[in-house]
Amino acid sequence: MAQSIESLQPSLVWQIFAGMAAVPRPSKHEERIRAHVKRFAESKGLTVHEEQIGNLIIEAPATTGHESAPITVLQGHLDMVCEKNSGTAHDFDKEGIKLLIDKEPKTGEPIVRADGTTLGADNGMGVALALAAAIDPAVVHGPLEILLTIDEEAGMSGAKALTPQSFKGRRMINLDSEEDDAIYIGCAGGCDTNLNWRLGLSAKGNAAESCRVIVDGLRGGHSGGDIHEGRGNAIKLLGRVLSRIDCDGLRIASMVGGSKRNAIPREAHADLLGPGGMTAQLQKAALAVEQEVKADSFESKVRIRVEKAEIDKAASAGQSAALLSAIAALPSGVLGMHPKVPELVQTSNNVSTVETKSADGSIDVVIGCLSRSSSGSRLDETKRQLAAIGILAGATIEIGNEYPGWEPDLDSPTLAKCKSVYERLFGNAPKVLAIHAGLECGIIGQRVGKMDMVSFGPHIIGAHSPDELVYVNSVEKSWKYLQAVLAELA
């Protein structure tokens, strides 16, 4: 398979990407991919600096005759979102990604995807483009610094640890965008809000029935880039089913859903105790909600079902009702559009995860949300709203991992050169956009000082879900564009 992947063009980029795909690289566990990239760069004669937190800064000397050009920083991240389909057996901590060459069903365009997991083109493809540019003797460029951060997908701690001394360049191309006809010049900031309940468990008692309600088959996706599409949220749908029935004695034993803070949850389930007739009511509610979702959205593959389960203990009916009320009240989706940029989401919230942990005769239920906004005041308003809902429902609140947005600079010299190169190469003007997803540019600008930054990359869809794919022809287009931009900047 690696040989087939490496037969694609540009071959050097695909070789590097295939090599990265073979190495496990979940967020917060990047030691193996760091070692892999460091060995690779040093084997090509490049100088590598490794920061204490794990960021890599790789220096590549200028092409002969261009030594006096300002340094250009090529930036990407080493980690990837690790999501898989429920029927896929894959250990992200031990196994590399199984790459498949395929065709996009609607257009027939050649694509590369993974076998039932996320692909890691976000941001492995950006890293591969940067490394290829540094080592290909045919690429004309000034001095390069390749900045590869860790933990972008789970907390951006790598970018947050940067200092003005981490690297020298102040002109940067971020290679973490996912549309090949656009140059991005801004992004949203964000923060995490966790709602925590400690629920006491009691024995089955008078409860006559127990069961598990399961929601799956949803599309999932990126909680920034895909949030405007109104994709189904498994946690919200699970709460919708459980709140639909007329059953005062419903008791929650556990609730689990989602897996990543920045992915729209595709699957969720709850284990329940309750009085006689509860299971039949839940089956009726599950069928009704499934039909409603299929009729009202693009979630044609959603499944909601009720299965038998043996449960001995659960939280009280009152505590369970409070938890379900919170799930019903938590907003998930677009909360506001940008007042000055047409079609750009300004503010959103994703109810990302719910997990249940045993705790000395009790359970801790934690609901995690990721809020995003290009407005600091709207982001503050959203996290206060989430906290208020949790407090009213008896939860304790934890807010953290805040990161700034990236303010667009339409007067950027680097943007002007990138636009002119795109028009010359492809005969039309690129889109100049801001993105609702989070890029590291805002943090880097805050931590390092004034930076002149743009972001572009190949066409990737389905990031943060097992549907992730990258278009082969788009990688070739992005490679051609990157080479031309670097030559212009040199």
Cα shape: elongated
- What does the radius of gyration come to? 24 Å
Which band does the percent of strand residues land in?
Answer: 25-35%
Helical proportion, percent range:
25-40%
Structure summary, number of beta strands: 23
Strand order in the sheet with the most strands = 1-2-6-3-7-21
Sheet with the most strands? Answer: 6 strands, mixed
Query: What fold name goes in the CATH topology slot of the largest domain?
Result: Aminopeptidase
Count of structural domains? 2
CATH structural class of the largest domain: Alpha Beta
Mean pLDDT: 96
Note down, in words, how this protein is organized.
With about 500 residues, this protein is α+β, with helices and mostly antiparallel strands. It folds into 2 domains: about 1-190 and about 405-490, Aminopeptidase (3-Layer(aba) Sandwich); about 190-405, no CATH class. Helices cover about 30% and strands about 30% of the residues. The protein is elongated, with a radius of gyration of 24 Å. The model has no long low-confidence stretch (mean pLDDT about 95).
